[in-house]
Amino acid sequence: MKLPVLVGLSLFALAACTPQPSSQAGAGTQPIAPAAYAAGSPSNTTTAFDGTYTFVSIQNVSKGNELDVAGGNAPITCQTYSNLSPVTVHNGLAQFQLLGYTFQGYVTPQGHLRMGSGYGHGIEGQINNQGVFNAQGLGACAYNATWRRSS
Description:
The protein is mainly beta. It contains one helix and ten strands; from the N terminus they run αββββββββββ.
């Protein structure tokens, strides 16, 4: 795999865990403008999962916690982080902010949610009937994260 691809894939690993202030107070009740890159389909969504999901936990699940890229010339250390911004869902469209990138996707009626950034980065997971969103971000590093519905 070429270095630019690995660097791009590692953006989630580096960005996913940087604390981000919420740019939208009460965003779970405010409209979200859909981006052209929003994952999923607006015709296969539901408002049943609308609300704000507050960060609960994140776990670095990268194998070995360090990956060699570019033939072993530039190792990427998979960081351990402690905070993520909230996930907001309005009219079935979910949004998540990460280091200036906006991830978006539509929640299916079954609670499945895949969000893309428009730059090849993504997270994917499931919202259960207790309002818990468990997701995984994959790139050069891998993380499991959890959010809980707060409104």
